[in-house]
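Annual report, structural modelling task.

Input specification for the carboxymethyl coenzyme *A complex:
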Amino acid sequence: MPDKAKITLDGKTYEYPVIVGTEGEKAIDISALRAETGYITLDNGYGNTGSCQSAITFIDGDKGILRYRGIPIEELAEKSFFIETAYLLMYGELPNSQDFDTFSERLNKSSLIHEEMMNIFAGYPKGAHPMAVLTSVVASLAAFYPVKDNLDPADEEVIIANLMSQIRTIAAVSYKKSIGEPVVYPSNKLKFVENFLNMMFASPVKDYQLDPDVVKALDMFFLLSADHEQNCSTSTVRMAGSSLANIYAVIGAGISALWGKLHGGANQEVIEMLEQIRDTRTSPAAFVDAIKNNKGKLMGFGHRVYKNFDPRAKIIKGLCHSLLKKPGLNDPMFDIALKLEEIALKDDYFLSRKLYPNVDFYSGLILKAAGFPVNMFTVLFAIGRVPGWLAHWREMRHDKNTRINRPRQVYQGPTQRAYVPIEKRK
Ligand code: CMC
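The model returned the following structure:
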């Protein structure tokens, strides 16, 4: 493999270093391109652009491989759990038992939001989308926790614990407020996921009966959502964080990016699509045909990086098979989803474009079975993604090569022209 790439422009040849990742990925380092040649690169949607070097998550989209800090996602899903995996992502290694206990204690200590924040929730209109509430309330943590420029490791610990723990409390409070029920406060007696479920579904008149299968399923959903390298929301976090903005506002920006239906918002869209098919009694084959004819999107299908099965989708599909077997949790929409997948994966339209089910295709069925309303699905994705965002923010801050992120553009607007006074305009 060459260690330099040659580029010839205007009759002159320039050489740029080839960077090779630990898994053999190759990149041309063009940092000096503009200074040396006057050219920039143009890459619609950044499909060919590496924005950083990172040691957190590895994806091979052609082979359907996903690893956090080197450990295959399948192994983590089987043997680990969300909080341990979150630690792995953020600190680089699995915790020993002492580190784990210290981390859990910090999460417990941070779980209460400032009581004055309750006033913020009171200001939202009835029916506000929970993602609108989440993004703004998380950003408003910046008003409660000023962050200095030079953070020491202890400051980082506080930030990590606050965000990991309080996003869960904020999500549950926003839900309780939206249905007009009193808030249930976090309890140090409960583990991370149990605590969240209890804040969501307990009430002063009724205890919440934790179902270990539901707890495990939600934990696994969080674990599978925890990181996915330079996706849209994580890149947003890196972008906003590179200006040294307050980290709570930075995570608010990440949540906003996640909300879009091409990204984390797809889990809500998938269930709404399945409900539409069910309610209109459309056959899955006719639905797939309509998508193709109208150039629409089969939600929960396709991925920028995976051109093969999304390994997270495989795991969640397996989880659907086991969870939805439980009495009372059976969901006919699972059969519709299975049928859609079967039809799409035999269809040349999807095969030729390498469109496979992604993580969002089956995840909504798990969240629905766990009792969550559909508009909370992307909120749950955000809770799961916090460790990934924080891991990238932390990595970026400690990388001596980090500069403010500031892409260039190719200007295609009018060339210089004069200002026309209003009375002379057409
Ligand atoms: N259904 C039907 N056709 C599709 C789909 C789909 N879900 N996704 C892509 N295509 C077609 C697309 O129309 C295009 O066709 P053509 O070449 O004829 O113009 C071709 O496949 C390439 O698609 P693209 O839009 O250029 O691909 P992209 O890498 O820019 O977009 C994507 C990736 C995930 C945004 C897209 O596949 C999509 O919109 N999927 C549906 C939304 C979804 O499920 N999003 C969740 C993504 S995974 C979790 C996450 O990121 O949070």
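The pocket of carboxymethyl coenzyme *A is lined by residues 45, 231, 262-264, 266, 291, 297-304, 353, 355, 358-360 (CB under 6 Å).
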